[in-house]
Amino acid sequence: MSFGLSQRVVAAEVGRSKTVILHFLNDPEGYGTKKSSGRPKTISPALSRRIRLAVRQETGRSSTQIKAITGADCSPISIRRHLQEKGFRNKKRLQRPRLLQCHKIARLDFARVRQTWDIERWKKIPPEMFSTRHSGGGAIMIWGAFSFNGTMELQVVQGRQTAAGYVEMLQRASLMTEGPRQCGNDWVFQQDNAAVHNARLTKEFFQENNITLLDHPACSPDLNPIENIWGWMAREVYKNGHQFQTVDAIREAIFNTWSNVPTSLLKTLASSMPKRLFEVINKNGGATHY
Hints:
Number of domains: 3
CATH topology of the largest domain: Nucleotidyltransferase, domain 5
Order of helices and strands: HHHHHHHEEEEHHEHEHHHH
CATH superfamily of the largest domain: Ribonuclease H-like superfamily/Ribonuclease H
GO molecular function: nucleic acid binding
InterPro entries: RNaseH_sf, Tc1-like_DDE_dom, Transposase_5
Protein name: Tc1-like transposase DDE domain-containing protein
Number of strands: 6
Domain Tc1-like transposase DDE: 139-250
């Protein structure tokens, strides 16, 4: 500095640290032009393509599974972050309910009572379930039921579900006519233990319409085959990493997918109940692989 000012004084005058002033004095021409080397990118374009292909092939894969499949030399966290940068959204896996001893006993009782039921009897039982799907613009809750012979009309649940709303929805779905049409006059309706299912108004509706219910043990989604339908639909709706920006878009995709559920899948799932019960008994009430 030709004026003989110290680094401390210059730093105070320009409002910068002494270290910055020192770097400038050491290399005035190069100051501010060098980029920090930083950590090199761990995901090359070729690896990025392999990662995205792995997701599109099976949307339910975890970042750890993707790392193993692609042979990536980066962490699962880096893979997850990379996918988010590419527009993919992370979906948390639904955890299996924790089975307490009381649940296992109830499941075992359920299975033993019905272990002699053959496929023909299970054909008469349409299971139902709620499911929530998300888009960039919000979420949509849907209700559906199916039998060995087909599906019932899909319903969109508006707002918080109440017993009155549930009954009205069953009426819109024409449960009283579709049940016997698909399963015969001695059909039985399967539902889980949601609060609205056990409400007084709901029970009165079933009694007034002479609808027989299948007692369903708590914490047992693996004994409700429609859970597998929702899994299949999720893979179809989000196939190839497809993302939805509006609720209307995902609603249309869900309804289109529901109308194209393979008949063979319905028959396979409806016919799987004897095997599910056998597995429950074999595992002393424990969870099945379904």
